Amino acid sequence: MDTMRERFASTASRLLDEDPRLAVVLAVIGRDGFREAERRHPHRVIDVGIREQLLVGAGGGLALAGMRPIVHTFASFLVERPFEQVKLDFGHQGVGGVLVSAGASYDSPSAGFTHMSPGDVALLDTLDGWTVHVPGHPDEAEALLRRSAKGDDRVYVRLSLQTNERPLPVTGTGFLTVREGRHGAVVAVGPMLDNVLAATEGLDTTVLYATTVRPFDGSALRRAVGDTGAAEAVIVEPYLAGTSTAAATEALADVPHRVLGLGVGRNELRKYGELSDHLAAHGLDARSLRERVSGFLTGSV
């Protein structure tokens, strides 16, 4: 199976053939995946070099000229480093585009902390009007990218090496009910689904699957926890823990509730290790999630 990032390159290359409004903007990283597309569309595959602020600024400029830019690099270089350009060149100018990241929170531990971005979604939460997609499988990434390319809004698509075994239907809106239960709800975001399903096996709880986290589907969460008793919800996200707890709390504001946000901790792990080591260290592997989720829902933590 190809990776989400490989699927992104092949899909975006086909989209360039289909829609003359689209342009892909790169900062060296990812250019190899667009060699053929660059030969076919030399003026719509643009490599600005290792200049991340220019990367986003060029995307904003293309949008002002009526194009639909697809801007790509690692999350830390796409959201964190050029955040001022994201804020001003897209948001302040009132134009749309598609930011597609790679690297996720710690996909490449050996690259060090410079290539890790657990705070990207939380940072975008400080801005208005961004749709955020977090696919859990390459097929989902393709579907969400195709949907994003057609619009005029501001979209962030967060790709990862971590994937679920099987894709699920995605619409770009709302949460999908994967398992129904009577006690509480667990929202699994993107590539967290397989671990959440393993962790909640045998528990009488509802599991919701979120590939679009902004806007947050508060209505689905509200329905899942029910109308009686104290509502209990767990949000399992592959980025900074607690990123969506405020949204969940707002959705449950009219009922007594408890919300637990699980995700990447704020502590920096200074040993490289592998992706699986970082998942375990942040308590996002199936065994750790089982302890944390079951303990919360049974009231033992």
TrEMBL record:
Residues 2-167 form the Transketolase-like pyrimidine-binding domain. It comes from the Bacteria. Signal peptide: none annotated. It holds the Pfam family Transket_pyr. PANTHER family: PYRUVATE DEHYDROGENASE E1 COMPONENT (PTHR43825), TRANSKETOLASE-LIKE PYRIMIDINE-BINDING DOMAIN-CONTAINING PROTEIN (PTHR43825:SF1). This is Transketolase. It comes from Streptomyces camponoticapitis. The lineage of its organism: Bacteria, Bacillati, Actinomycetota, Actinomycetes, Kitasatosporales.
